[in-house]
Amino acid sequence: MHQVLSSTPEGIFTINVGPQHPATHGVLHLVITLNGETILKIEPHLGYIHRSIEKMCESLTYRQFIYVTSRMDYLSAHINNHACALCVEKGLQVEVPMRAQYIRVIMDELTRLASHELWWGAMAMDVGAFTPFFYAFRERETINEIMEETCGARLTMNYMVPGGVMADIHPQFQQKVKQFIAGYKNKIAEYNELVTGNVIFQNRMKGVGYLSTEDAISYGCSGPVARASGVACDVRKRYPYDVYAQVQFDEIIETAGDSFARYLVRIREMEQSVRIIEQLIDNIPEGDYQAKTKAVLKLPKGEFYQRVETARGELGVYIVSEGGTTPYRIKFRSPGFSNLSALNEMAKGGKIGDLVATMGTLDLVIPDIDR
Amino acid sequence: MDNEALKASLLPLNANLTFEEGGEWVNVFVPYNELKPLLKTLQGEPDLYFNYLFCLTCVDWKTHLTMVYHLTSLKWQHNLVVKAVLNRENPQIETVCDIWKTAEFLEREVYELFGVEFLHHPDLRRLILTDDFKGWPLRKDFEDPVNMIKL
Amino acid sequence: MLNTISFEAIKTAVQQWLNMHWGPHLAFIAECILIGLLVIVFFALLGLLLVFMERKVSAVMQIRLGPNRVGPKGWLQTSADTLKLMLKEGLTPDGADKFLFNLAPFLIMIAAMLIMVPIAFARNFQIWDINIGVLYISSIASISVIAILMAGWSSNNKYALLGAMRSGAQIISYELSAGVAVITMVMLTQSLSIQDIILSQQNGWWIFKGHIPAIIAFVIFMIAATAETNRAPFDLAEAESELTAGFHTEYSGMKFALFFLAEYINVFIVCAVAAILFFGGWMPFHIGNWEGFNHIMDYIPSSIWFLGKTFCLIFLIMWFRWTFPRLRIDQLLNLEWKYLLPISLANLLLMTIIVVLKWYL
User: How far apart are CA C125 and CA C141, in angstroms?
Assistant: First the structure.
């Protein structure tokens, strides 16, 4: 960490953390006011990766703007694309064929698994255990290979289009995914043995970074951060889209509100994702993979909002349309933005060593926050 | 509550409400100087209980600016969109930071992109752009000959 | 034939040759110089070997390959790294205390080398079998704390000083538990001299003969040893993602290499001490009075026994590093003062009772 130190006589001083981290959270600059070792206030300085995506999208057509959104929360690229496609379909009132819906949900859940894997590896590395990082990437590599074979890219997949998916899944897709899932449950058990059950790890995480239920709601937190504080806000359950209404899975809620609760919520979410994929992978119906839509899309005049559950929380896409081929205004409600605003609340009063653990469990992806 | 019931329960709260038809959720327009009391009531009223502000943004309609607040109630599962029209030359509105803490960052973002001044905001300065940035980028009349490429 | 090419035989042969040709005084001086050179060479080779071992062991645990380009299967990697460090610019910060800044790395190496003196590498192959062997090792190990504090202080860097103080506090605390664990074993052997300790394990290693208290002492000693050498999970002072970068931040070039090397040498030393106290040093694996079995075990040279045990324990310490997350500084000191020290004192009491009542095997 880069530190610049200036002190006032009372023993209160400010240090900078970032924008370059050894802990791969992205370019986040925190100005921390300390009294000795205790944190008094944290102020995030954002914008190091601001690319003005919202303004850019005002000059891109409805088919084009989806590709830019993969770069927002690049770890849940599929889910971002899915949100945009759903919003456009809401405007066009297009019915997506069932086959496309199944494929989309399977891809979403695979992406969620990959994102949580990277979170787990990076967080364990922050706390000092170096080996889980490699184990996480071993799993992620398999998912990336499946993505590459189906969509052509490993990170920014651009597979979802308004109306369905861009191309049909290839013949070995189901078999590869089934193979991956079959070995996966043992992996989660391994992770639990290696990290979750480790006493040192639990001591680092329990009681650290507490966020109460009222604060979680007031700060607009969503996703695992809110669910660990007892807020039931899983978009897949409350406002289901595609086939989520027909799939059986649990919404994981913990009430402790500390870093360990956030950790447990994500680990259990991984198990639920596996459950969802298992239910869907054998039953992909035949049919079209894309609904028939015009070549040039024009949304009618009006406003459309679509929310999805990314690996980080609730992503909202708000399109204001004037009837043309490009949106008049797009706003992306990013989950990381609101989760980050709660960091001050969680970390103040704690020590610097605890800040690392807290930030690890927030799972921030800065391009998602800066857009 | 469904949309009709929501509309019915909103009407007594303020005399100057107008509704916009055709959306997925109830869209209600309120004059900007009466926005804050309405939002406070929306949050506090036990039947409405909009405790979650999930989107706060602004749209530039060339003749005026519109502030858009998306609210939801985690308890009753209903959603509402509240809008306020602002004067383009001098856009000012009361902050809602004390009602929902998430507004602090969201309003800073709207301030730096649109130039809307939020009265009584604890720390109104640029968040994502550099502190010395000139202009309000997301307004429709923002010109930047160096960085903006018109196709 | 194996007896003629053992270390012991080489040593006696060299001593005889020197005494014959040069007379007793000159021979003594020549021996001292020879031993000094041997220790330095041994350190250099050991350092190279241990760093390479760490990288390969960590690679295997992390499902990757580790260095495999430089030299056959990567064996020359550490030599290349040492060469690079020697050629790097050694930067001294502006306001640093030059004398102490330059002295600190040497002091830590001197401490490590002095500890080598009583360690027995093979049968009758010790530099000096001092009668207070184990006590000598414990006391010289404390000198390294001075070197660390010197390094942190003279760097003229608030964060280096903070890291040095934390490191110093950690080492001093854990020396207590390690010392009590050592005393527990000394009670069994009733002698501090290394030779006596090893010879008393003629019919079985202490970890088996001393059963429960010896096993507890072993576990405590390994934990304390990991903390004393600043290895994970107790490596807060040198961790990158924590705030302070450690006492050796301002060091570069060869001086940094000396600190880095000293860490690995210290690991070797504590594992050697553990091997001597608990596993018999160079004593082969004997079971009581089974003459035949013992005779077969004696065929394996004693130096192989010693190095084998030490390297197994080093592997264990490396295993800890790549498995466990890091402890916070307050959790670390908590562990020592609230758990390890009381347990080791209670264990000492237990061992006393066992020795007095002669309940050991």
Answer: 22
Please, what's the largest Cα pairwise distance for chain C?
Answer: 67
- Where are the domains positioned within chain C? 98-356
Q: Do A203 and C327 touch (CB under 8 A)?
A: yes
pLDDT tens for chain B, residues 1 to 151: 777 888 888 888 777 888 887 778 888 888 888 888 888 888 888 887 888 888 898 998 888 888 999 988 888 888 888 888 888 888 888 888 888 888 888 998 898 888 888 888 888 888 888 888 888 888 888 888 887 777 6
Which residues, including other chains, have CB under 8 Å from residue A364's CB and lie 6 or more apart? A25, A26, A28, A312, A336, A339, A340
CA distance B136 to B110: 9
Cα–Cα distance for residue pair A188/A185, rounded to 1 Å: 5
CA distance A136 to A122: 9
From the list A357, A3, A123, the residue with the least C-alpha distance to C249 is A3
Whether A77 and A67 have beta carbons less than 8 Å apart is answered as: no
Q: Put residue A209 in one of left, alpha, beta given phi > 0 → left and psi -120 to 50 → alpha.
A: left
Residues of B in contact with A217 (CB under 8 A): 51-52, 74
Residue ranges and CATH numbers for the domains of chain B are 3-89 (3.30.460.80)
- Alpha carbon dihedral A300, A301, A305, A306, in 10-degree steps, equals 10
Give CA separation, A100 vs A106, A166, B81, C74, C104, in Å. 10, 9, 31, 50, 68
Q: Tell me which residue in C243, C325, C328 faces A129 most closely, judged by beta carbons.
A: C325
Residues of A in contact with C159 (CB under 8 A): 3
Tell which residue, B85, B91, B57, has the closest CA to residue B71: B57
Identify all chain A residues contacting B109, using CB atoms and an 8 Å cutoff: 337
In chain A, which residue's Cα lies nearest the Cα of C236?
A: A128
Sort strands B26-29 and B79-87 into parallel, antiparallel or unpaired: parallel
CB contact under 8 A, A131 and C323: yes
Q: Which residues of A touch C236 (CB under 8 A)?
A: 353
Q: Do chains C and A touch (3 or more CB pairs under 8 A)?
A: yes
Please indicate whether, in this complex, the C-beta atoms of A220 and B100 are within 8 angstroms of each other: yes
Nearest CA in chain A to B148: A56
Answer whether B138 sits within 8 Å of A55, measured CB to CB: yes
Tally DSSP H helices, then E strands, for chain C.
15, 0
What single DSSP character describes residue C328? P
To probe the interface with C, which of A6, A130, A193 has the most C CB atoms within 10 Å? A130
- Among chain B residues, CA nearest to A219: B102
**DSSP β-bridge partners for residue C87:** none
**From CA A211, how far away is CA B108, in angstroms rounded?**
23
A340 touches chain B (CB under 8 A): yes
The domains of chain A are located at 49-370
C331 at A interface, C-beta within 8 A: yes
Of A361, A339, A353, the C-alpha closest to A123 is A361
Q: What is the separation of C-alpha C326 from the centre of its chain, rounded to a whole number of angstroms?
A: 22
DSSP A195: I
Are B55 and A47 inside 8 Å of each other by CB? no
User: What is the interface pTM, i.e. ipTM, of the complex?
Assistant: 0.90
pLDDT exceeds 50 at position C1:
no
What is the chain B residue with the closest CA to A313? Answer: B54
Architecture of domain A49-370: Orthogonal Bundle (1.10)
pLDDT confidence band for A2 (50 / 70 / 90):
very low
Q: For chain A, give percent helix, strand, coil, nearest 5.
A: 50, 15, 40
Q: Which residue has the tokens 């370019």?
A: A27
Cβ separation C323–A201 shorter than 8 A: no
Residue C246's identity, in one-letter code, is G
